[in-house]
Write a structure and sequence with these properties.
The protein is mainly alpha-helical and about 130 residues long. Helices cover about 85% and strands about 0% of the residues.
Length: about 130
């Protein structure tokens, strides 16, 4: 410091240049750090985007599979209903046939009895 209380100009210039170098280095360090953070953020965004697309594709596949299963179930239920209706109709037909058979068997038994009575040999009568 001089007698007037001021720093000499040359020392001020040196101090200014030193400070500028420090600030420039700090700015570069900060810029490098920010670029690193941005790069990591971009990678994370890319990863999440890819993951999201994979999950969307998986959901689409699951949805398609679910629709296929729903169609198969609908087809199976329709076939089941048709089979139940057919079974009911066949059961009714079998019951009707059984009733006709029972009536015929009864009718044959009734008609067979008089024929048996008619074919019986007569007992000989005593003609003395």
């Amino acid at each position: 410091m001089g007698t007037t209380g001021f720093y000499p100009v040359s020392s001020l210039r040196l101090e200014l240049q030193s400070t500028q170098r420090e600030l420039l280095q700090e700015r570069e360090t900060t810029a490098t750090y920010v670029r690193g953070v941005e790069d990591r953020a971009h990678r994370e965004v890319d990863r999440v985007r890819e993951e999201s697309m994979a999950v969307a594709a998986q959901m689409k596949a699951v949805s398609k599979h679910q629709e296929q299963l729903r169609q198969r179930l609908d087809t199976a239920l329709a076939k089941l209903s048709e089979a139940q209706q057919l079974a009911t109709a066949e059961a009714a037909r079998a019951a009707t046939l059984a009733q006709h058979l029972v009536k015929r068997l009864r009718a044959q038994r009734v008609s067979a009895k008089p024929a048996k009575l008619a074919k019986r040999p007569r007992e000989p009568t005593d003609q003395r």
